[in-house]
Amino acid sequence: MSAAETAMVVALVAPLVGAMATLIVGRWPNLREGLSILSGAVTFGAVLFVARALHAGESISLQILEPVAGLRLAFDVEPLGLLFALVASLLWPVTTLYAMGYMREHHERHQTRFFCFFAISIAAVMALAFSANLATLFVCYEALTLATFPLVTHSNDRSAWRAGRIYLGILMGTSIGLLLFGCVAVYGIAGTTEFTPGGVLAGPLADGKISKATLGVILGLFVFGTGKAAVMPMHRWLPNAMVAPTPVSALLHAVAVVKAGVFTILKVVIYIFGIDLVRDLDAHTVLAYVAGFTVVAASVIAMGKDNLKERLAYSTIGQLSYIVLGSLVATTVSVQGAAMHIAAHAAGKITLFFGAGAILVAAHKKNVSQLDGIGKRMPVTMACFFIGSLSIIGLPPTGGMWSKLLLVEGTAASGDWLLVAAFLVSSLLNIVYLLSIPMRAFLRPERTDIDHHGHGEAPLSCRIAMVATASLSVLLFVRPDLVYDLIGALGAGAQS
Questions:
Q1: Between the N and C ends of the chain, which has fewer C-beta atoms within 10 Å?
Q2: Quick one: DSSP state of residue 233?
Q3: Which pLDDT belongs to residue 253?
């Protein structure tokens, strides 16, 4: 086993070791949380080592077992998976730091259980990111659903259990009822589920083993079966999960679950179908319009939500469909933009959820209408919220600008101007429902009919985490090459 393969194993195992350590030292909160951050740092360090090895041209893979010919439980490193692993492993210790202040200030119960399942969820993400084939990805996808269920139901009240039932019902229902059939169909047609540059289905199509119409149906199974991508109407689990503590919302919306969904669709488009084949299917246009509808509809709904976390939840639904739409447009540039948006959205949206949680623990406010003048009491929080908003909208100086430019450019290259309009209209709506929040926080006077509890900023650990993620959004603007150099070869050989 090479040093790079050993590092990949460390990245896969370190979160599980961290979860066990959390349980063992759970009686000592400082030690528990210190070990959680250490586990995150070790995981990120291991992924960085893998990234350097891949950049140097090393081939990094690991096979666990092969129970059936052509079906392996195996891991492999390629640029898209490495990007996902880098984002998740970087944001894990930052979110843990934030959770330290939030969970204590909010007097949350069962904090040891929270940190334990948080680590297990990251382990599932690492395994999913490095999956070498559809079979491994499906197993890890389901493991992630099960690992995050206790986080969604953390509050252990009626609303939490209702949200948990919806969460588990939609995600498991779509994956078993649709996604699994898509995986089985690929194996039956191609005799393999291995992720292969250019895809594995073009050959069977050329040999007459399958028709374009059937391949279109299979593509639809993946799009709607990947419930974590929240394409309408498979989106209801996401706003319902907002009853969970804010660090869980940050995990769901930026680090793990939703990114696992769009990552799955991108992997399937690039490495199972191939973007040339996707663009040649009539169904890709229909599915792209469904994603385009989700982009606009979610933005319209977000405008009408007064609850801050619900507004951010519908924003996430729309932003995820940016990535799905970029995948289904299937031009080289749109696919690269979709991959870049995974990183840009992660940095921007986690900052927004950190801000929402900080407002809750410091000011005890949940609604946008209650935030007039709060910027004077919480200037750091609202400044970070402003930067996160710019990233989601796609404005400088944040990384969201570059990913959205690539998405619009790639979609324009396809000649479908209605889909380009969906991107632009949604971005205008983003301005309305996001920028209005820091504007009213800084520019309006405080409401005299609301008890402000004499509050100031959130705990220091929450502020440090917010500043770190907001700074990451700015860094992705100044140094987009950090992401683009990694994913620049995605879709190579396709017509742009």
A1: N
A2: T
A3: 67
Q: pTM of the entire structure?
A: 0.93
How far apart CA 452 and CA 362 sit, in angstroms, is 9
d(CA 189, CA 494): 23
Q: In residues, how long is the chain?
A: 496
Please give the angle made by the CA atoms of 112, 89 and 336, to the nearest 5 degrees.
145
Query: Distance between CA atoms of 72 and 135, rounded to whole angstroms?
Result: 7
User: Mind listing the pLDDT tens digit for each residue in 416-452?
Assistant: 999 999 999 999 999 999 999 999 999 999 877 666 5
Q: What one-character DSSP code corresponds to residue 268?
A: I
Max Cα separation, the chain? Answer: 73
How far apart (Å, rounded) are the C-alpha atoms in residues 136 and 158?
35
Contact 152, 164 (CB under 8 A): yes
What is the distance between the alpha carbons of residues 243 and 255, in angstroms, rounded to a whole number?
18
Helix (H, G, I), strand (E, B) or coil at 299: helix
* pLDDT, tens digit, 9 for 90 and up, residues 103-121: 887 677 888 998 999 999 9
Whose structure tokens read 């996401």? 238
DSSP β-bridge partners for residue 61 = 76
| Rounded CA separation 114/384 (Å) | 26
Give which of 218, 246, 268 is closest to 102, Cα–Cα.
246
Contact 141, 257 (CB under 8 A): no
Secondary structure of 33-78 in the HEC alphabet? HHHHHHHHHHHHHHHHHHHHHHHCCCCCEEEEEEEECCEEEEEECC
